[in-house]
Design goal:
Helix content: 10-25%
Shape: elongated
């Protein structure tokens, strides 16, 4: 059963730290009685976008019923301030960084307490929808800590400013809805809250000693038959001891949502987390030969999780993938136990082909693999990693290997317009090719032709769901 955890705040900047579980429910109650207090409270709703998490709704709960007809788009302004520790890479000096902005409001409307638009003439909840952009850090609840080289939660404070009076059902003006740091509020991380983020696994490695890995997991409800397990291995930026970050920082939540869940008929999701990085060879530095201090511990975690859930997991359908560091570790685990996984989907994988012997290629070709990468990746040299390894697998006669190659990573749904009215799509960091995977946009093979299963062109997730050991 999913363990959940509620966060409630009444004063000061919000300091989100490591949590032992998820929120109490998708939407949680504030810690005051609205009927007994005239102080408005609010919820901040976060969801995960292609470019990372964004706070996109404020749900204001007020003491009196206001008329929907009195609410206008400029009734409120929303200000945000963020602070977080940061490091000057040139001087090595740490400092307190500060961001602030007036959030761009898209619409304001009367709603229910979950933020859904209401058709009622009056009510106690007002929802403010705000624009989220990947190039606006103030819309995100997290930041990249240069000293730790991990994503972490920022400290942030929202201020909701009422700019014009509203009318209540008694015909009176409502003017006291501006919030301060003293107004109570809650934070809701949608879909992330459906994951159990309390997982912890202890392992003693013969060479590297005691290792503790944390993990998040998701279990679909209402499915009687055994279901597959999808494993996602995070990149270097999502390491640490807070598994929420591993789910939140990239759109890993998509694995627990439609349409991906539908392709598998419902699937469990496991997101292990390393305290440092998967490519740590034990020295604290990036591996120089493909070895990792976490290989044995991670494989043991996965097998223990499967054993603990043997009544619900179909062991013939265990799928392994991940991005960057996680793509490296995907290949590492396939080499460690070539017969365990039904298929793999490494993304922007950081495993140098030069580290792979011919014997390694012979092991890898046993498992169906679908690679995804972008040629303009400036973090991982795609030519020396994915492309070279794919070509060796093909030459070795690998029967089920595919490779979706993109030049760069762009906003193919045109959600973000460029400045100056440009018709060109927004361009993400070219290392972020997991955006294509988690949106199920990997559809073509390296030669540009569709991947075919049973005479039908398929996407990566459709292909993955069809693989069985």
């Amino acid at each position: 059963m999913t363990k959940r955890h509620t966060r409630r705040f009444a004063t000061g900047l919000l300091a989100l730290t490591v949590l032992s579980g998820s929120l109490t429910s998708l939407f949680v109650s504030a810690n005051i009685s609205y009927a007994e207090s005239s102080i408005p409270s609010y919820k901040l709703l976060t969801k995960v976008y292609d470019g990372g998490p964004g706070i996109y709704k404020v749900i204001l709960s007020i003491h009196t019923e206001v008329l929907a007809s009195s609410i206008e788009k400029d009734s409120f302004k929303v200000l945000v301030e963020r602070t977080y520790p940061q490091l000057n890479l040139q001087t090595g000096i740490s400092y307190e960084a500060f961001d602030s902005s007036s959030r761009r409001i898209e619409q304001i409307y009367l709603s229910d307490e979950q933020g859904n638009a209401s058709e009622q003439e009056a009510g106690n909840y007002i929802t403010i929808e705000m624009a989220v952009r990947p190039d606006d850090p103030t819309t995100s609840p997290i930041y990249y800590d240069l000293s730790a080289t991990h994503n972490k939660y920022a400290n942030y404070q929202y201020t909701i400013i009422q700019q014009q009076p509203l009318k209540n059902t008694e015909g009176s003006e409502v003017t006291n809805l501006t919030t301060t740091k003293h107004n109570p509020y809650t934070v809701v991380e949608q879909t992330v809250d459906e994951f159990d983020t309390s997982g912890k696994f202890n392992y003693t490695d013969a060479q590297h000693g005691d290792i503790t890995l944390t993990y998040a997991s998701y279990k679909p409800e209402g499915i009687a038959q055994k279901r597959p397990l999808i494993i996602w291995l995070h990149g270097a930026g999502e390491g640490g001891t807070d598994p929420r970050i591993s789910v939140l920082a990239n759109e890993v939540t998509a694995l627990a949502e439609e349409p991906i869940q539908g392709y598998f008929g419902g699937a469990e999701v496991l997101v292990p987390q390393t305290p440092t990085m998967w490519m740590n060879d034990g020295s604290g530095q990036y591996t120089k030969d493909g070895s990792s201090m976490y290989t044995n511990a991670l494989l043991a975690l996965i097998k223990q999780y499967v054993e603990d859930n043997k009544n619900t997991i179909d062991t013939s359908r265990i799928y392994l993938g991940g991005g960057s560091n996680g793509g490296f570790m995907t290949l590492n685990l396939l080499l460690a136990d070539p017969d365990y996984f039904a298929a793999a989907y490494p993304v922007a994988e950081a495993y140098l082909d030069a580290w792979l012997s011919d014997e390694d290629i012979a092991k890898l070709k046993q498992t169906p693999i679908w690679f995804t990468a972008a040629g303009q990746d400036q973090v991982v040299n795609t030519a020396k990693n994915t492309t070279a390894t794919y070509k060796r697998l093909v030459a070795a006669g690998a029967p089920h290997v595919h490779y979706s190659y993109f030049d760069k990573v762009t906003d193919i749904r045109n959600e973000y317009a460029l400045a100056g009215g440009s018709v060109q799509p927004y361009e993400y960091n070219a290392h972020w090719s997991w955006i294509y995977v988690l949106n199920n946009d990997s559809t073509k093979d390296f030669d540009g032709t569709p991947v075919i299963v049973n005479g039908k062109a398929v996407t990566l997730m459709e292909w993955l769901a069809a693989q069985r050991k």
